[in-house]
Write a structure and sequence with these properties.
The structure holds 2 protein chains of 2 kinds. Chain A is α/β, with parallel strands linked by helices. Chain A folds into 3 domains: 154 residues, 3-Layer(aba) Sandwich (Rossmann fold), CATH 3.40.50; 250 residues, Rossmann fold (3-Layer(aba) Sandwich), CATH 3.40.50.1100; 42 residues. Helix content of chain A is 43%, strand content 14%. In chain A, the strands form 4 sheets. A 7-stranded mixed beta sheet of chain A has the order 1-2-10-7-8-9-13, sandwiched between helices. Chain A has a 4-stranded parallel beta sheet with strand order 5-4-3-6, sandwiched between helices. In chain A, strands 11-12 form a two-stranded parallel ribbon. The termini of chain A are far apart. By secondary structure, chain B is an alpha+beta fold. Chain B has one domain: SH3 type barrels (Roll). Chain B is 19% helix and 32% strand. In chain B, strands 1-2-3-4 form a 4-stranded antiparallel beta barrel. In chain B, a hairpin with a 5-residue loop joins strand 3 and strand 4. Classes of the chains: A alpha/beta, B alpha+beta. The interface between A and B is large, with 62 and 41 residues.
């Protein structure tokens, strides 16, 4: 009898498919209660920093330039109080082989797949990661399939995602595209089962550890150039892997006083699984539609325990609007001579604002850029938005209505990153993690303190509010 | 007729509208989940007919033929007048507009 490939049958085989395709038995890291041993998982299944640098170096990944944004810094100071306006730097990750920092994640995942003897790799992603996996697979001679959500039900495709499909195919990968919906995961599982390929998930320990080299490099480059660590590192945040890996790398370099700031594009109100709203958003990543749910519930990813756990490392979380990122992307080209992005410039737009509250002698680093090109370009995105009925005009970006308009700041003083309430995020994570448990042990409390980077008092108070009993 | 061996794009319905995941918003539930793939036709076929293709990784996939020798048409879009103003605004704010040489 042939295997049952119905939706229900495939989804019910998820645990086994995952185990076979990632090569990690996640059960061995589970604790008695709600938690698991994150550090042991990272240590036993990952690679050392030196090994990762070696693996990445062999495929030309890493050691990207550190650039000072002198003109943007001067411009930001025009709107800052006297003595304020930190120096803005950028880590030009677009210089990686596949055009983004995702090459670091993919380098490790694909190397690992090859080492374990898999014949191919599969990744479910509409983002730069697909191109990164495809590029690495090409270097290692492995087959590659990328599954991406690309079109709405009218067969209208997001230009940025279409461009990423092109790039994957350019590296010899097979691209499977779907219409809008989380059941893409079913297509993904079915492919894993059918091919026996490696699941190059974005959220495995080796993938996340691959970004640690970025954090480490940042510290080393600043020490060599400026004789000190940056005061703040700002990361465009979606699934949390970028921030997690970078922060871990900085810690490994001993840069413990560097503040870690997350930045996302505010798409509050747009439903990520809505067919009608799919093409009414002008960002396909780096936005709150991923950033918020993944921060507060990291294990919603495509592996049982995600190695991307942003709230463990995040000091601040700020939001910017679509119009602010588009404007900053244009300014980066016009005033620094760098055409990059757009989504990767989310953190840059936020940095322009955050820098104005920091002292002049301080340093803020935007830790990534990404390649740009046809489809994946502000001109293409704004044209697409307009064709989809989105109004575009100059005004106050705070008045932007998601899915209705894109407001470019009419004056640069209006570009202001908005603070996210970190307490609210922490509360939400605790609720998500603890609500499944009837009783909470001391071990669970310790786990939640680390998960949320919060005090015992804070965690205990939330548990009390949720009505969860202590053992 | 499309000749065997031609590179084509096919589409296939993965889940009919009545069988979508329960947590979806209503507008998405109303439409089927479609999948698109590309590959070499395994037999001569007609446009819109069901055919089997061999993908670049060597998998056999069945679906409705929808495009022959598919190519990419994405571009840099139309003229966006607002973008032209951004550079002018930034340069003026930092270097003082027209007087700046």
């Amino acid at each position: 009898m042939s295997k049952d490939f119905s939706y229900e049958a495939v989804m019910s085989r998820k645990p086994q498919i995952m185990k076979d395709s990632v090569g990690i038995d996640y059960a061995t890291f589970e604790a008695e209660g709600i938690g698991f041993d994150y550090e042991r998982m990272m240590k036993e299944t990952g690679y050392t920093l030196a090994e990762m640098q070696e693996i990445q170096g062999q495929t030309g990944v890493g050691n990207t330039p550190l650039l000072e944004m002198k003109n943007l810094t001067e411009l930001a100071r025009k709107y800052a109080p006297k003595g304020k306006g930190a120096r803005i730097f950028i880590k030009d990750e677009a210089s990686n082989p596949s055009g983004s920092f995702k090459a670091r994640r993919a380098a490790n995942a694909v190397y690992h797949a090859k080492k374990l003897g898999y014949k191919g790799v599969i990744a479910a992603t509409s983002g730069n990661y697909g191109a990164a996996v495809a590029s690495q697979a090409a270097m290692h001679g492995l087959k590659c399939i990328v599954v991406q959500e690309c079109y709405d039900s009218r067969y209208v495709g997001q230009p940025e995602i279409i461009e990423k499909a092109r790039k994957c195919e350019a590296y010899g990968a097979e691209v499977i595209q779907t219409s809008v919906g989380p059941e893409l995961f079913y297509v993904f599982l079915k492919l894993l089962e059918e091919t026996g390929y490696f699941n190059a998930s974005l959220y495995t320990p080796f993938g996340i550890a691959g970004v640690e080299t970025l954090g480490y490099e940042i510290a080393m480059q600043f020490r060599e150039r400026e004789g000190r660590d940056p005061d703040a590192v700002i990361c465009t945040n979606a699934g949390g892997g970028n921030l997690t890996g970078t922060a871990r790398g900085l810690i490994k370099a001993g840069a413990e006083n560097t503040k870690i700031i997350a930045a996302s594009v505010d798409l509050t109100g747009l439903h990520m699984a809505s067919d009608e709203q799919f093409n009414r958003k002008s960002f396909t990543t780096g936005h709150t539609g991923f950033g918020m749910p993944f921060a507060t519930n990291p294990d919603r990813s495509d592996v049982p325990r995600s190695a991307a756990r942003a709230l463990r490392y995040m000091d601040r979380y700020v939001l910017v609007n679509q119009g602010e990122v588009f404007l900053m992307t244009e300014l980066l080209a016009q005033m620094e001579g760098l055409e990059r992005g757009p989504a990767g410039n989310t953190a840059l737009a936020a940095a322009f604002s955050v820098a104005q509250d920091m002292n002049e002698d301080e340093i803020i680093l935007v830790q990534e850029t990404e390649y740009t090109g046809a489809g994946k370009h502000i001109n293409a995105q704004l044209t697409f938005a307009r064709k989809n009925g989105i109004e575009i005009f100059f005004g106050d970006p705070r008045k932007e209505e998601k899915g209705k308009n894109i407001i470019l700041p009419e004056d640069l003083s209006l570009l202001k990153a908005q603070e996210v309430d970190m307490e609210k995020l922490r509360k939400s994570l605790i609720k998500n993690a603890a609500s499944k448990a009837d009783i909470i042990t001391e071990e669970d409390i310790q786990y939640l303190m680390v998960e949320t980077k919060a005090s015992r008092e804070f965690v205990e108070k939330q548990l009390e509010n949720l009505g969860i009993n202590r053992q | 007729m499309i000749k065997k061996g031609t590179w084509v794009k096919i589409q296939d319905t993965i889940l009919e509208s009545g069988h979508r995941a329960p947590q979806l918003p209503e507008d998405t539930k109303k439409v089927p989940l479609i999948m698109w793939a590309k590959g070499f036709l395994q037999d001569d076929a007609e446009m819109n007919n069901i055919a089997t293709v061999k993908t670049i990784t060597g998998r056999l996939v069945k679906g409705q033929v929808m495009e022959v020798e598919p190519s990419y048409k994405h571009d840099f879009g139309d003229f966006v007048p607002e973008l032209l103003q951004v550079g002018i605004m930034g340069r003026k704010a930092l270097w003082g507009g027209e007087d700046h040489e």
